Amino acid sequence: MKAELERVDKRKQENAERLDKLGVLIADDEDPQSKAKLQAVLDAREKNLVVQSKFIAMSADDSKRDENVKYLLTTVRKEQTAYLNALTDLVKFQNTAVEQASTVAEQSYSSSRTTMAALTVVAVALAAWVLHWITRSITQPLNRAVGMAQAVAGGDLTMRMECHTTDETGQLLRALIDMNESLARTVGQVRSGTDTITNASNDRQRQSGFVDAHRAAGLQPGGDGVVDGGADLDRVAECRECAPGHQAGGGGFGLRHQGRAGGGRGGEHHGRHQGKLRQDCRHHQRD
Question: In this structure, are residues 13 and 59 in contact, taking their beta carbons and an 8 Å threshold?
């Protein structure tokens, strides 16, 4: 009997410790029903301990055995049943709370997973757009620079391009634009100089051809080395009129040239030419 009582006291201490730990855990619970369930358990336990202690005291008197048994089966069992029911309600409530918390956790996890997936898709799309924008900002100016370099290599200096960026690619494009403009100016200057040289050469060739034509006709430049272009061309034309198939009198020929013979070096020059032309004319007339 003594050993049984010691075992009962030991179980009382263990239950008290467990209830104290449970009370610490439930103290942080925001649900008031959890605290109410725990308090109901504690109250039922206190009533059970009272009737249990009374029954143990009554059990020491064997003369009241029947009364003790009746007390055990009625009063003690009633309080024990109330205590066990309170514990059962607390356990059921805690299990329901755990299930609800698990459901809420699963929903939160599912919602968080969906949110994370959506954020991942948005982040990937944003990263792809940023990558495309960065790539485009680099490749477009480079393609324009390559196009201008190819045009310059092909001899086309008329390409015009604008650059509004100040990064490394923009600086490269600006350098190509400046190079193209400088080359266009240089080529323009070279062309202008070439045209000037060509015109001067053409003038020189015309002058040389004119002198050669006079020499072929037997005419010589004046004493100053200058050929009287207008007068000499008329004389050449007059000499050609004296060729076979044309008849011109000596008097007419003299009348044509009398007005051209002037004084000084020019007159002497014309006189010599007139004599030469008359001789050529007479030669043609005899033929």
Answer: no
